[in-house]
Request: fold
Amino acid sequence: MAKPSRYNIEVEADGALFLYNPVSSALLRLDGPTAETYRAIAAGGSPDPGHPLTQELTRGRMLVDDSLNELLAIRTDYLRGRFGHSPNLALTIAPTLDCNLDCVYCFESKRRAYMDRATEDAVLAFVRSRVPPGFKRLDVFWYGGEPLLCIDTMERLSRALISLCSEEGAEYRGHVTTNGSLLDRNAAQLLRELRVEKAQFTIDGGEDTHNSRRPLAGGAPSFEATVENLRHCHPLIPCVVRVNVDKGNTAAALEIFDVVERLGLKNQVAIYFAPVQASTDACRSIHSGCHSPPDFAGIQVQLYRAALARGFYNVGAYPRRRMAACGAIRDDHVLIGPDGTLWKCWETVGEPAEAVGHVARPGEVLPRAYEWSGWDPLDQPECRECRVFPLSDGCCPWRWRRYLAGVSRVRPCVTYRFNIAEILRLYIEKMERTGTVGAPPDRQ
Reply:
């Protein structure tokens, strides 16, 4: 016997019933009689094993075996994703915590430390010590501070790691998170040569808005250099534009569409909106200016609806399951700081108390590491009951740690908990406009 999945989400749109399952990420349109057949099953009726609808529902994990405990299955998949053998390795490397911008909401404590040659050598030796059996892929995420302040370090380490992957018969993929002000055409050409496959810029709206929030250190504007570099970079490296949103630029965030359109990059660069959060002690003072998760969920829908109305179809992402996607809780990911110190989370980099090891001592495990490995979001009752848990893995472990310790008053939660139906309706509308059928392919 089969039963409807506890995670099924029903959405009425375009005169039809759409059924979405976050475990499989499948989206199924049910019209007329098929919708009625499904509703009868959902009400407790027995599905006909030979009916085509039953087969489709089963394939999409919308019908599961009656004896299946889905929560246990989710927990097992989640733990396997974190601790099971992976032939891949992911590194986040912050060659400096220094930055040439002075953003009003920065969560890092800036330090003028830069990675030296001895640390570069230690990083390479550390990576060699971590190569897994059957090594298939190394992903390197360049982070900071502003990593392009250390472009020479990026070049030397990238070439060494590419050579290591070549020796091992593994794929190498580079990624960079940058404020964009230094990523000019020459830098973009070099990063392309170094196999950087994606560059994330941050632009917080139009020129005045962006410059008021993200000035250069010293107060000079950063907008013009950033957008010009985006124009030159995108033909060489696929780019993503992140817009950080708080109460200070909620309306002005819409200006990003004018910016991208003027650059001639409409539907070429991806755009996504992210909430500013007071996630570290360095930025605790901005708490009153941040949106709560439920509030931002509504704002996110408004922003995506505005994008769709203007014909921007590369905004936001289809809600897809990413099993144990947070690198902080995975065995196959580590973050390396400028002096070789190891951390697990991007938001803790540079904080000595949060260190979990050092590249020069590969076998060392500092006590803080066990707080990450011991984290299980399904210990939280609200996560166990949440229908969108497969999309979130319980939200950010670092923010949960701060919340449970009483440091933060904001309960961590993904916006999908509050807006999944509206997000799906917007995706369905986009399908109609673009002729897309069903869920998009997984490109990861």
Summary: Residues 88-309 form a domain with the TIM Barrel fold (CATH 3.20.20.70). The chain has a mean pLDDT of 93. The longest strand covers residues 171-177. The longest helix spans residues 416-434.
